[in-house]
Design brief:
- The chain is mainly β.
- The chain has 3 helices and 23 strands.
- Strands 15, 18, 19, 20, 22 and 23 form a 6-stranded antiparallel beta sheet that branches. Strands 2, 3, 4 and 5 form a 4-stranded antiparallel beta sheet that branches.
- Strand 22 and strand 23 form a beta hairpin.
- The radius of gyration is 29 Å and the shape is elongated.
- The relative contact order is 0.10.
């Protein structure tokens, strides 16, 4: 119910699209009901008074805003809350952003941690039974930040360039924050990517020099469109202020900033095929389990991922169960062996014959105690000169890592993997 002092005119917008009231959008001192049904749903609504002007103010009074919906509430986990409310309140996660709680996408009866699970058909894979959807393990996000660009005013384009962006494995999210003269519907920033217009930012949700918070706008670009528009090798973002945007309107400096998030293959999917590498390992694991370390009683484990075809040169090693934030070195040998505690190590050397150290590929385990180590099969180190591995050859690989345990710095070995190249 809305009323005004004197006659006015209001507009309701759902996700930026005005609702057509058929000419009945005028307000008076008598309360009137304004409402709309949007079958497709909406995520944002706005009211705006259209006739007010300096010296001719319109004062609006509104009450009893009500939101209702039709249809059936979906409650896949049967906890008494609709799925959308579960996700919004954080009682359920939605790592892939498809509006379905994650526990409702893993097969019912799965023994993975994080259960119980509720999917009965058409379930999403969790190949390694860790309670995380495979689709959420194989994607990481690389974020690019522009910092403050300004001043923001008509006649001056603002640009932000990302040279050589990674391949997008999903929608690219662009977020803009602004402190500028963007308070009217004719005050906005046109957004372009390599010359392609993506629409106008802040056209409906901007304000004049907000303080202390900035205005916020976001958009998503489908992966195939992003790849097409950035085929030249760079992503050049351009903001063009409309004619009405005044760079001198804010008492302080006006500015706008970019945050661009590009989904890329994660370190758990080095061959970018959408399947966690731990579910498609190559070769034969031996000398397992590894010796205990300060973080894991079963020690560290190594997995070969990618392709065993030597000519493709697409091989990497995934190492898990490492102590966090420690250096890790890949080593290779001509044969298998079992040498306990060499040179005071806490582990077992599982390589024999000529042993090479991949010193150029020194890795770091990070806070999660895991790492990926890609190798160049044309530059396999040996004690003398690098060699190229050929089809028909067998090589043995192991991770050698640092650990800080019982008050002193130690070193240890993972288990090992035998790879036959073809």
């Amino acid at each position: 119910w809305i009323q005004s002092t004197g006659s006015g005119s209001i507009e309701l917008r759902l996700d930026g699209v005005p609702v057509d009231f058929g000419g009945n959008s005028h307000t008076t001192s008598t309360p009137q009901f304004f409402g709309a049904i949007q079958l497709a749903g909406f995520s944002q609504f706005e009211w705006e008074e259209l006739e007010a002007a300096p010296g001719d103010w319109k004062y609006l009074f509104a009450d009893d805003f009500t939101f209702a919906f039709g249809g059936t509430i979906i409650d896949c986990n049967q906890n008494g809350l609709g799925d959308a409310l579960d996700i919004a309140q954080g009682t359920s996660t939605d790592c892939n952003g498809n509006h379905i709680p994650d526990e409702c996408e893993i097969l019912q009866g799965s023994s993975a941690p994080g259960g119980p699970f509720f999917c009965q058909s058409g379930c999403d894979p969790d190949c390694n039974q860790n309670g995380i959807l495979d689709a959420c393990e194989v994607i990481d996000y690389q974020e690019f930040l522009s910092g403050a660009l300004g001043p923001v005013g008509s006649g001056t384009d603002l640009t932000f360039t990302i040279p050589g962006p990674p391949q997008a494995m999903g929608p690219v999210v662009v977020e803009l924050s602004a402190h500028a003269n963007l308070g009217g519907s004719d005050e906005y920033l046109e957004v372009r990517l390599n010359g392609q217009s993506l629409g106008n930012a802040f056209e409906w949700n901007g304000s004049d020099c907000p303080s202390p918070d900035a205005d916020f706008f976001s958009l998503a670009i489908p992966a195939n469109q992003f790849e097409l528009w950035t085929a030249s090798g760079s992503a050049v973002w351009t903001l063009t202020p409309s004619q009405e945007v005044d760079a001198g309107d804010c008492s302080g400096a006006s500015w706008v900033s970019f945050a661009v998030r590009i989904p890329r293959p994660s370190a758990l999917d080095i061959n970018a095929d959408g399947v966690p590498d731990s579910c498609e390992s190559l070769g034969t694991i031996y000398c397992t389990p590894g010796q205990p370390n300060s973080a894991h009683p079963e020690g560290a484990s190594i997995t070969a991922v990618g392709s065993g075809q030597a000519s493709l040169n697409q091989l990497a090693f995934s190492v898990e169960g490492l102590p966090p934030n420690q250096f890790t070195l890949l080593i290779n040998g001509e044969a298998a062996a079992n040498v306990p505690f060499p040179a005071g190590s806490l582990g077992i050397l599982c390589l024999g014959g000529s042993i090479g150290r991949h010193k150029e590929d020194l890795a770091f385990s990070g806070p999660q105690g895991m790492t990926q180590i890609p190798v160049d099969l044309t530059q396999i180190p040996t004690p003398s000169v690098p060699i190229t591995l050929q089809a028909g050859e067998t090589r043995y690989f192991q991770a050698w890592y640092r650990d800080f345990w019982n008050g002193s710095s130690q070193n240890n070995f993972s288990d090992a993997v035998e790879v036959l190249f073809y």
